[in-house]
Design a protein that fits this description.
alpha/beta; four-stranded mixed β-sheet; about 20% strand; about 190 residues; four-stranded parallel β-sheet; 5 helices
Length: about 190
């Protein structure tokens, strides 16, 4: 059974791929956060995830936005108004199941993203007015699937208090998981 550490003892953290400087965004750009990549990246092993690219959308692509009910918004293309909610949800459910094997100690999402935003993502109402009340489609499914896994957004991690809290939570998460694995192994050995 795997633990949350790789061969080098680094904690494994999921991250939105664009934050590592990969050109995966709708406009062929990235959202590099050099602190996350170059500073924290020395101490963790990232498992990059780009929902839109991994779901099969091209680079570049039409931008997406969330529309409708903030609790169950639709993922709509900005110009052509095509609804890709079902496609994204189906992919996200499959992907979070695959991420179980990664034993992630945490996840860092790209803020404001209609697929990855964790809080305050714009959701447009029937009049076209936006309200910062949404959660990205993938982020919502991830957080529901992994309710005990620490999550945070890139922008919020520039707040020293939120940063320290996130780091503490990922270490506690890893420690708890390893304690449980050890206890299960001992229990199984005692039954033999």
């Amino acid at each position: 059974m795997k633990t949350s550490k790789n061969a080098h003892g680094k904690i494994r953290i999921g991250i939105s791929t664009c934050l590592l400087g990969e050109n995966v965004r709708y406009d062929s750009g990235h959202a590099l956060d050099s602190f996350l990549r170059d500073t924290l990246g020395k101490y963790v092993e990232y498992v990059p995830v780009c929902p839109e690219v991994e779901c099969g959308f091209s680079i570049p692509r039409e931008s997406f936005l969330l529309m409708g009910d903030p609790k169950q918004p639709r993922l709509i293309t900005g110009s052509t108004s095509e609804d890709h909610t079902g496609r994204m949800k189906a992919w996200a459910r499959k992907r979070v199941a695959e991420l179980e094997d990664e034993k992630l100690a945490g996840f860092i999402f790209k803020s404001s993203s209609p697929s990855c935003g964790m809080v305050s993502v714009k959701v447009y109402d029937h009049k076209g007015v936006s309200h910062k009340v949404g959660v990205g489609i993938f982020a919502r499914i991830f957080m529901k699937h992994f309710p005990l896994t620490p999550v945070e957004e890139d922008g919020r991690l520039h707040d020293p208090i939120l940063w320290e809290n996130f780091i503490n939570r990922i270490f506690v998460n890893r420690s708890f998981r390893e304690t449980m694995i050890t206890a299960m192994r001992k229990s199984n050995c005692a039954k033999i």
